[in-house]
Amino acid sequence: MGRRKSASDSLAMRVWILLIILNLILIPAQVAAGEPNEPMKLEISFPAETGGWKWDGKIRNFNPRTLFDYMDGAAELYLAYRFQSLDVYQLEKSGQPPLTVEIFTMGSSADAYGIFSFERQDKDAGIGQGSEFGGGMLRFWKGQYFVSIYGEGEGPELESVIIRLGKEVAQAIPKSGPAPKLITYLPDTQVGLIQKSIRYLRNHVLLNQRYYIANQNILHLNPQAEAVLAQYLRGTHKVHLLLIQYPTEKQAEDALQSFKKAYMPEATEKGFLQTEDRKWTMAKRQKEFILAVFGAPALADADELLKATEAKLKGKGI
Asked: Three-state SS string across the chain, please?
């Protein structure tokens, strides 16, 4: 991982989170990348009964200003992915624990993918456009919706009905949406990609939660600059690749110089550095993209991964 956080870093990070929340609430969702926004009205025909569990007929709704009332301490993550609204459903069956279904409407399908990818760690459940099931919770995304379903208990019957309910809700979502195009620029599993390690990010606070780089936003991430972080296997080592796309080449170059000055001031003109843990960091720009490798066990590993990314971009006509 990167450099250690100090107490002042933690305080500053909390301030940054508050600023980001205000920014995301005040800035229209349309300014960020992704397909155009659709109406925020939830148009899903929710199943009245599944496997003996019956919906109580009530819907609790939350917006960006009231989300903290429902999930104080976790709302920041959803707001960072341009959260629009949340509908919560409850299903009950006599003698069984209740089921809770949370349907989040995000700013775009890219945001729905992003919130799903940020915490993905379990096996694919084959539901929606991407899913996982573990610890009694099903999570999936489809279109601009992110859905979680869980019960207050465990057991084969409960797990079976959660999967069944998830399939019904996914089927009720009228249409799919594109995942972020940026993830298609990553070198694939033949180069060692760990598929479920892919994280789609929109700001540096979230980036730091998955790979700490710096308290300050030295890579100039913002709602118009998308980023994707992924792990690659190099022997027994896991290496991080960060790929960021900026609106212009100039913004990418400015961000690269800011990163080099703050993170790797001792780096050579070639843009690589061996850190105190004897791992290698390498960064460069290709048009409006920044490519960076962290934690490579050898310089050749970092160089190989960057070249594979460059080749993938060129193969896409970039």
From this structure: CCCCCCHHHHHHHHHHHHHHHHHHHHCCHHHCCCCCCCCCCCCCCCCCEECCEEECCCCEEECCCCHHHHHCCCHHHHHHCCEEEEEEEEEEECCEEEEEEEEEEECCHHHHHHHHHHCCCCECCCCCCEEEEECCEEEEEECCEEEEEEECCCCHHHHHHHHHHHHHHHHHCCCCCCCCHHHHHCCCHHHCECHHHCEEECCHHHHHHHCCCCCCCCCCCECCEEEEEEEEEECCEEEEEEEEECCCHHHHHHHHHHHHHHHCCCCCCCCEEECCCCCEEEEEEECCEEEEEEEECCHHHHHHHHHHHHHHHHHCCC
125, 133 Cβ separation under 8 angstroms: yes
Copy the structure tokens of residue 264. Answer: 């790797």
Backbone φ, ψ for residue 77 (5° rounding): -60, -45
Question: Regarding beta strands 237-245 and 272-274, do their DSSP bridges make them parallel or antiparallel, or are they unpaired?
Answer: unpaired
CA angle 76, 163, 54 (to 5 degrees): 90
Q: What is the pLDDT of residue 5?
A: 39
Give the pair of three-digit tokens for residue 182: 């940026």
Q: Give yes or no for residue 28 having a pLDDT over 80.
A: no
Residue that is written with structure tokens 């992924």 in the block: 230
CA distance 202 to 208: 11
Contact 236, 227 (CB under 8 A): no
Average pLDDT over residues 76-94: 94
For the segment 233-251, what is each residue's pLDDT rounded down to a tens digit? 988 899 999 999 999 999 9
Which residue type does 24 have?
A: L
